[in-house]
Write a structure and sequence with these properties.
Helix content is 47%, strand content 19%. The chain is an alpha+beta fold and 791 residues long. A hairpin with a 4-residue loop joins β5 and β6. The protein is elongated and about 115 Å long.
């Protein structure tokens, strides 16, 4: 069989035909890409979608050298530290799953690329790479050689979010102008009757209507053609295929009628059809943009920052209140929230959350530190040099590395859309066969109306809009959800696992007693200096309890082991603070205590009697439909208290390390449970990521972790039942909107098939159906939310 299209890009052969490896290519560029992919075992690219490749650009290969100049490099990249650089390129030609697969496999083609991640909606790819071995210009050339030439301009460098599609506005304006004027020119046709002047000038009016309709059909509706073509090219019949067929049926019939003087055609109707479809598309885009804005966690993160003045006084403030010039304190394992300059301390910055590469970068006073890095070691004092911009934290929050793969309502929507198109095309064919025998002229209108009215825009809009509303309402009530799929996952949860310290106990309240030798003010100042570095809830309580001047001394060799303790050298003395095992003491006492050791000499211990959050007993009783488990790193000293407080707990486990907690959750999941884990963001990061839904409790501290699915205010923990019930209601609302959307299509199709619905009315009904779904979900979510929260 003769091959008529290029194996790589699918384009028809023009002048040359290059044979290689039993396949034929239209140019050396396509052949080269095929060779590159096969040499690196990436031949699956062609199995995903046949002829999905992009023909490489043959322009000058030196076109990206300017990217290596320092001024341009700093403007274009997102992040650059040590050997690691992050850059986000705009690549407009991304169009299918094969493109995504190839662009996210770049590390296979180039060893100096750590990872790459595609945002299909925005047509961008973010790449982490070794900038010392792979210059930015060569990275851009690699993409160009593969057929994915990046667009680099001042607009893309500014990285501004696009909320208004100017091209779509122009297309709507052209269609609206043509529709209005087309109705004006077609008016004499409708009312002229036997008028002499009308018959004399009717051909002129018809020509004017054709001229008005031409740019509408071939420009305003061009996005539908591109979408349909990409689908057909990759052997996918998407929802735009029937719409395109409807447009061409009307245009072809209109052209035929005018050329044969059979009638005036449907040019005015066609312009109106495209105008209203574009309005619906604009409405949908604006809706998604609004949802995207509502999901913008830059204003939602409940992360507080410790601000310090020049006298050393500390104050916890919201991140949004930070200003350029403010000084902040960053402790061990805390994430740096803003771009800053190091003022004091030994910085050892772990940028793995940003770059994906586990490497720590040492910093000295005066060095710049990027937002998103994590301090490993002693406390730092930083000066803010940029306005609060959490773009890196937002990136961490949404980063694919921390996402959990799980099917959901999005899959249901895609499955419905997949079969929907075939059903509609079948109905159109059967209706066309019937009407071509009954009324040939009416057949064109009937088929066009069926193809237009059946567009499942409302179906596609129902799930994201409902979940978007719910995410906003939950956020207002200090329950910050990562993405829409998390809401569905919450609705499926049947088992709850709670960490004890800092989760069901207060971070700021505890009855503390000291037992041991008297400690001098000199040692207390040193101990308080060391304690200041830790984010553990007991450390924060102890810091407030020790009654000496707020000190700040240099710390050497600071080490912290999560859940156990920390040590460091302060003013020539080495201190160990933590559990009995960590400091090397034997203790069989069942109590929550922090042990202190100085230069291998045991000084004493601070004993804590935890204060539990209010209304916990009522909260756990309200959660009687869930299996409840408590995990604690402390000993069993408060087991009896917890048993009285939580009389419906399935299991209480103590002396649990972070690794034990993660294993416990795995065992629950292996037994078929859907688990939600509640813990502090840093010590429980592994368990939070492993669980089906990880909820990080934030109590006026920087407990952000990208491993969690939810961040919630600790003071709202007693309202878990309300949050979870609202998520279940959200899933129910989505299912109801699915039914409404399908009912709309059934009713619309019944009128279209019987010939009682014109294409223009069908086009008007499209955006109305979307508006009705948005209105229903808005009212339904508002009504259900009022049951739980004040709106």
């Amino acid at each position: 069989m003769v091959q008529n299209n290029c194996f790589h890009c699918g384009q028809e052969f023009e002048k040359e035909r290059i044979s290689f490896d039993g396949k034929e290519f239209c140019c050396n560029g396509c052949k080269s890409v095929y060779e590159i992919l096969n040499m690196n075992d990436l031949g699956n690219f062609y199995e995903l979608n046949r002829n999905s490749g992009i023909r490489p650009n043959s322009e000058n290969n030196d076109q990206f050298d300017y990217l290596d100049t320092p001024e341009v490099f700093d403007k274009v990249v997102d992040f650059s530290e040590g050997k690691t650089t992050l850059v986000t390129f705009k690549i407009p030609v991304i169009h299918c799953s094969s493109c995504i697969w190839l662009l996210e496999s770049l590390q296979t083609l180039e060893q100096n690329i750590q990872y790459s991640q595609v945002n299909f909606t925005r047509k961008t790819v973010q790449i982490s790479f070794n900038n010392e071995e792979l210059p930015l210009s060569k990275l851009a050339k690699l993409l160009t050689d593969l057929g994915y030439k990046p667009v680099v301009s001042m607009e893309t460098a500014d990285k501004k979010e696009e909320f208004l599609d100017k091209t779509l506005i122009i297309k709507i304006a052209i269609a609206g102008f043509a529709f209005g004027n087309g109705m004006f020119f077609s008016w004499p046709e409708y009312v002229g009757g036997n008028d002499f002047y009308f018959h004399q000038y009717k051909n002129l009016f018809r020509l004017l209507m054709f001229l008005l309709a031409f740019p509408v059909v071939f420009y305003s509706a061009s996005d539908y053609y591109k979408s349909a073509w990409y689908g057909l090219k990759n052997k996918i019949i998407n929802i735009d295929v029937p719409i395109v067929i409807g447009i061409f049926v009307l245009f072809g019939r209109s052209l035929y009628e005018v050329l044969t003087d059979y009638g005036q055609g449907y040019f005015d109707t066609l312009c109106g059809l495209i105008f209203f479809m574009l309005l619906g598309k604009y409405f949908q885009k604006r809706t998604y943009s609004a949802l995207s804005y509502d999901r913008d966690y830059k204003s939602f993160y409940p992360i507080a920052v410790t601000k310090v003045d020049f006298n050393g006084a500390q104050q916890n403030i919201l991140l949004s209140e930070l200003k350029v010039g403010d000084r902040i304190m960053v402790r061990n394992q805390e994430i740096i929230p803003v771009d800053a300059i190091l003022i004091k301390g030994e910085a050892n910055i772990d940028n793995s959350f940003i770059t994906g590469e586990s490497a720590s970068i040492p910093k000295k006073a005066g060095d710049k530190i990027f937002a998103g890095g994590k301090q490993v070691g002693a406390i730092l004092e930083l000066e803010v040099i940029k306005n609060v911009n959490q773009s890196y934290l937002t990136q961490l929050w949404n980063k694919e590395t921390f996402k959990k793969i799980e099917s959901g309502l999005d899959t249901m929507t895609n499955q419905l859309s997949k079969y929907f198109t075939f059903i509609i095309l079948s109905i159109s064919l059967l209706a066309g066969i019937y009407w071509i025998r009954t009324d040939f002229e009416k057949m064109f209108q009937v088929v066009s109306a069926i193809l237009i009215v059946a567009c499942p825009c409302a179906l596609a809009l129902s799930a994201p809009f409902t979940f978007g509303h719910i995410m906003r309402i939950l956020g207002r009530n200090k329950f910050y959800v990562k993405d829409a799929l998390t809401i569905e996952k919450i609705a499926k949860i049947n088992t709850l696992v709670f960490d004890k310290t800092g989760t069901i106990t207060h971070n700021k309240k505890s009855d503390i007693k000291y037992l041991g030798a008297e400690i001098s003010d000199f040692d207390l100042e040193n101990i308080k200096t060391l304690i200041k570095n830790s984010t553990h809830p007991l450390s924060k309580l102890l810091y407030d309890f020790i009654d000496v001047e707020d000190p700040y001394f240099e710390i050497e060799h600071y080490i912290e082991i999560a859940g156990k303790g920390y040590s460091g050298k302060v003013r020539s003395h080495v201190y160990k603070i933590g559990s009995a095992n960590f400091v090397g003491e034997n203790s069989k006492d069942l109590e929550t205590a922090v042990y202190i050791k100085k230069d291998d000499q045991f000084l004493g211990k601070f004993i804590f009697k935890n204060e539990y959050r209010k209304s916990l007993k009522e909260m756990f009783f309200s959660l009687k439909d869930f299996k409840i488990n408590i995990l604690s790193g402390d000993n069993e000293s408060e087991k009896s208290v917890l048993e009285k407080l939580i009389n419906n707990a399935d299991e209480l486990k103590f002396n649990q390390t972070p690794e034990d907690k993660l294993t416990y959750i795995q065992n629950l999941q292996n037994s078929g449970e859907k688990v939600a884990m509640f813990g502090d963001g840093l010590n429980d990061a592994g368990a939070l990521k492993q669980s089906n839904v990880g909820v990080a409790i934030a109590d006026d501290s920087n407990s952000f972790t990208p491993s969690s699915d939810v961040i919630m205010d600790g003071s709202k923990i007693t309202r878990i039942k309300d949050y979870f019930d609202l998520c279940k209601d959200a899933v129910s609302i989505v299912k109801i909107t699915f039914v409404i959307s399908l009912m709309y299509n059934i009713v619309g199709l019944s009128f279209a098939i019987t010939g009682h619905l014109s294409p223009l009315k069908a086009a008007i009904l499209m955006p109305i159906s979307s508006i009705s779904v948005v209105a229903f979900t808005s009212v339904a979510t508002w009504w259900r939310s009022r049951k739980y929260f004040e709106i």
